Batch of 3 targets.
Target 1
Amino acid sequence: MAEAKKRLLTYAGLKALEDELENLKVVKRKEVAAKIKEAREQGDLSENAEYDAAKDEQRDIEARIEELEGILKNAEVVVEDEVDFDKINVGCKVKVFDVTYDEEMEFKIVGSTEANSLEGKISNESPVGQALIGKKAGELVDVETQAGQIQYKVLEISRSM
């Protein structure tokens, strides 16, 4: 059996996943069980849309619990005190100047599990993340993206956690 891939997480990311798992197990399971019980009490289950919807919700909750447990089991937490802030790595906040589009941007470099472009969190496995990892302030970085070649100048590296 192949060893599961380690999932890099910041401490904040780990805490968020643990909180979500706890909520699913303690709150959501009870809520959906009550919905199923209520739907069963309505009688004939063969044409009971509420029952079907509740069972679907239960299946989704259990699938997410299983997914979260797998992620947490294989989590490797980035310890802030061990991160070298002289160069870009997971756990850093990076300010760059986009030479191509003449604008300043800020990213948090996180593991793929935490990535969320709307929150400015980019994965270390994304094209931009891969290109930035290991770079120092002042360096130019060329990134090949779906939109084409982009060049960044690294302005600043700091703590993000």
Target 2
Amino acid sequence: MTEEKFPGKIEITLPTAQEWVKKYKAPKEAAKSKKIDAYLIPLESLQLVMNQKIDAVRAYKGINTAGEETLMLVGTVLNAKTGIYEDVFPENAGVAKTLGDEPIVFDGGRPCPPFGDPESPMNN
């Protein structure tokens, strides 16, 4: 999905993602964020995370710089010894060439509202 169809970039650096998660976990920041019913997830984000050699995808919640709750998608690989799916972070996966050498996390969603379908039976 291009930015014309889906606003904002879908790749963010790991430090940015860590900041957003920290904001989400902070009680004051979470209380200030708007109530979110769902997330619109761009196909491009799903494809990029699925193109990695992974076993599963984990979604982290955070609060972005606009104060909106968001989902961040991270590929995971199963550690057979521990049984834990461990997060993996690709080095600049290919969309955002301006992010430098930081590991990449996929900003996987836009909040609903405002990106929801008001006519959906899921909203009734």
Target 3
Amino acid sequence: MASSPALPPFDPADPLGIDDLLEPEDLAVRGTVRDWAGKRVLPHIAEWYERGELPGVRELARELGGIGALGMSLEGYGCAGASAVQYGLACLELEAADSGIRSLVSVQGSLAMYAVHRFGSEEQKREWLPRMAAGEVIGCFGLTEPDHGSDPAGMRTRARRDGGDWVLDGRKMWITNGSVAGVAIVWARTDDGIRGFVVPTDTPGFSAPEIRHKWSLRASVTSELVLDGVRLPADAVLPGALGLRGPLGCLGHARYGIVWGAMGAARSSFETALEYARTREQFGRPIGGFQLTQAKLADMAVELHKGILLAHHLGRRMDAGRLRPEQVSFGKLNNVREAIDICRTARTILGANGISLEYPVMRHATNLESVLTYEGTVEMHQLVLGKALTGLDAFR
């Protein structure tokens, strides 16, 4: 009887051998983004987080454009045309550095650029997408309002016709990139239904005061958008979007990136806890040698790599054109919840050191509290799945 081939060694960094699923091009994309984040973000992120700012954000955006990370899964107009899996790997590496950096990229590419690419006119695409892909122009996406988060159908921002122009009035809240954006994609109610508008941020009547005093996403620009009689030409409207299908389609694309990104924060926290458990000694031995610590590490590893496998599966379905919105909800619901649990468990392994910014764990945990809520709360994704499972609509 022929002998069985030798098994590859067990790799704690990839216990399920998930890297075997990746092509050389996938590994190259991952390596490029990981290297960039390691050089440009990790040495500074604790200080940025503590100060509650993201200095040099425009320079960072240009660098991200230089490595093809902005709108990277879009085709043409200066975009990289990468696969969904490659985009997901980039999100994972960016969020392993910080959720705020991944949010910058997600809002730029999966919300603002995606809206123009999917619903914009040819003139809008040519005007904005090449500069946004290069990081020369930062974009934001205005959907959420002070009184309408999970229920965007109730939005109060209005767009009315005045001769050949549109005039917008209203407010948007919790808008990533708002204060540094050169263009805003703003969703407003019209007589015909909800429409999207391309709003240059230097338009009179537009302002974007920054939101301060946050516990979460501190190294990220978060803003309010104020539209006070913002006058736009007729061709500012996105011609391909009418009704909520437009903005919800953009959110689905961005949520996909979150499925991956959350696992980046979880991986960073797990790796920190694992290294700490190997080197921290109590009672004359490394704490990683105690049964309770090993149980925590084992559970964390299982949930982390299950989540990464789920992200890979959804990515391959997206690349095949077979990814349903309910499946994206499945991924966001699971992976963000599990990522928060991994961060919290990692904090217990680090003990008191876990609350120090010397380690990334609590920074990731507080950031994920925002990720848990934005682009669909836990409850909203539960109801999306509940409707899909039962055929009964709990929203009505």
